[in-house]
Amino acid sequence: MVSLTDFQRIGVGLVGFGIFFILFGVLLYFDSVLLAFGNILFLSGLVFIIGFRRTFTFFFQRPKLKGTSFFLGGVIIVLMRWPILGMLLEAYGFITLFRSFFPVAFGFFGSLVNIPVLSKLLQKVGDSSSMV
């Protein structure tokens, strides 16, 4: 098990609340206040988890400047109360920033099928022919 420092635990909580507020803001027809609050919580949680210097070097690497500019530009646009445009910019920036991480995540989700309990559950879900 990975041991986390107190700051990293706080960061995980901040990221979790940030994602919650972003999803809740989208659910409530792109409420700009919830989206802005979620963005601030998500970014501050990221700083708490990996540190300020690592966060800065991650976002401002030369190949990732395009994604960073779209992501942070989207955050600024959301803060200026244009939530739909801001979220579109953020989504594009997020995809370009974390493009190299997606194969790792999909590989992890694919390996979940090898867990005995989950494989039986997935088989049951796949075998059901009910449309409801």
Strand content: under 5%
Roughly how much helix do the residues carry, as a percent range? over 70%
Write down the Rg. 18 Å
Query: What is the distance, rounded to the nearest whole angstrom, between the alpha carbons of the first and last residues?
Result: 39 Å
Number of helices: 7
Number of DSSP E strands: 0
Overall SS class: mainly alpha
Give the overall form: globular
Largest sheet, strands/sense/barrel: none
Topology as H/E string?
HHHHHHH
Low-confidence stretches: none
Mean pLDDT rating = 89
Description:
The protein contains 7 helices and no strands. It is mainly alpha-helical. Helix 2 crosses helix 3 (52-59).
Element layout with pairings:
Elements: H1 6-27, H2 32-50, H3 52-59, H4 65-79, H5 83-97, H6 102-111, H7 116-127
Briefly say what this structure is:
With 132 residues, this protein is mainly alpha-helical.
Overview features:
132 residues, mainly alpha, single chain, 7 helices
